[in-house]
Design a protein that fits this description.
Layout (H helix, E strand, L loop, with lengths): L1 H12 L4 H14 L2 H4 L4 H9 L6 H6 L2 E3 L6 H12 L2 H12 L15 E4 L13 E3 L4 E4 L2
Parallel strand pairs: 1-2, 2-4
Antiparallel strand pairs: 3-4
GO molecular function: ligase activity; ubiquitin protein ligase activity
Organism: Copsychus sechellarum
InterPro entries: E3A/B/C-like, HECT_dom, Hect_E3_ubiquitin_ligase
């Protein structure tokens, strides 16, 4: 019985996926040569490719750069007050809105910076404007 179980497990986890995994590995190594990836542990490589799955949201607030705003402006204080009350899922949705991904890049949360800039549209009522972002430049345009 033990030999049967060992052979069955080997078939399921190794032999049955050998061809698809080989094709995947060949394609992966074509774009990402192995010599560059061997220096990473699997966990480090996963973070590098997928980003950090957990966050220190107060560190995110600390690293923000302001354009047209000051850290103590009422709009900014209100923004962070509301943001920190959001559930984790909504905070990740904000991150996806800002960056296009719900994870912070593999460089680490302490290096992640974005800008909150004043959305200044002449003659329009700021209460009728919605925030928008430039995902390439990591800028959140926020009306006063």
């Amino acid at each position: 019985r033990k030999e049967y179980v060992d052979l069955y497990v080997n078939y399921i986890f190794n032999k049955s996926v050998q061809k698809p995994f080989g094709d995947f590995m060949q394609g992966f190594l074509r774009g990402c040569p192995a010599r560059n990836w061997k220096m990473f542990f699997p966990e480090e490589l996963q973070v590098l490719l997928q980003g950090h799955p957990t966050f220190d949201w107060h560190l995110l607030e600390k690293n923000v750069i302001y354009g047209g705003y000051e850290k103590l402006d009422r709009t900014i204080r209100n923004f962070w007050s509301v943001f920190h009350k959001l559930p984790e899922e909504k905070k990740k949705m904000f991150l996806a809105f800002l960056t296009g991904s719900d994870r912070i890049s593999g460089y680490g949360p302490e290096r992640f910076r974005f800008c909150i800039a004043e959305y200044n549209s002449q003659g329009e009522n700021p209460d009728e404007l919605s925030p928008y972002v430039s995902t390439c430049q990591l800028i959140l345009f926020l009306p006063r």
